[in-house]
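Morning!

As promised:
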Amino acid sequence: MISFDRVSKIYPDESVALDNVSFSIEPGEFVSIVGPSGAGKTTLLKLFLAEEKPTEGDIFFNDTNIHKLGKKSINDFRRRVGMVFQDFRLLPGKTVYENIAFTMEAAGRTDEEIEQDVPHVLDLVDLSSKIWNFPKELSGGEKQRVAIARALVNEPDVIIADEPTGNLDPVNTYDVVQILKKINDLGTIVILTTHNKGIIDSLGKRVIAMDKGRIVRDDKSGKYYI
Ligand code: ADP
């Protein structure tokens, strides 16, 4: 479970990015975080990943207070979270296989595990045929599916997809959302930030709406309105 308990973040220049925010996310939930630019979404994700420290309040992952962890434990914790970004962030000089293998090597996985698991995650995102291609040979939607496979390969507890469809056309957007749903159905928490109203409405899952550093709505209606 993820829990934010009365969390505020005030940056050194006195910008109030989060103002007394509390919520929790249960195992297996799919949560979309919406809100206008400047609402505090990125700050919220950065605090969860311990890239920034809260000014006030605590953030827990299961029973662990993330901001009380030492450096090594923070790295271990981050490996339990898979990240997917709008701009894919694939390594251009590596093949699809190598991009995913690289993440597994960094996590200390064996060659045998890598040879076994890379084809498996590519199958999950329906991209087995592109295993030896380079990113520049893939469409935007295919690149994002590789990025999702890479985020999944170390079997994280949580996937954070930060505007994952921002660079995709409607067909590829649909595919990426379907894959995120499938991952969630297999038991992984998915946290999605998006400006795409259509996605939120079609998902019908929990929506946390933010504005000016506060949660202005948190419900399961699955509708995008603020
Ligand atoms: P969103 O992701 O919803 O656009 P952010 O979390 O990026 O929102 O920003 C929330 C507020 O915090 C904004 O007013 C922004 O200008 C401010 N902010 C974000 N990052 C920093 C920073 N590193 N230093 C100062 N202010 C920041």
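Residues 11, 13, 15, 17, 35, 37-43 surround adenosine-5'-diphosphate (CB under 6 Å).

Hope this helps with the figure draft.
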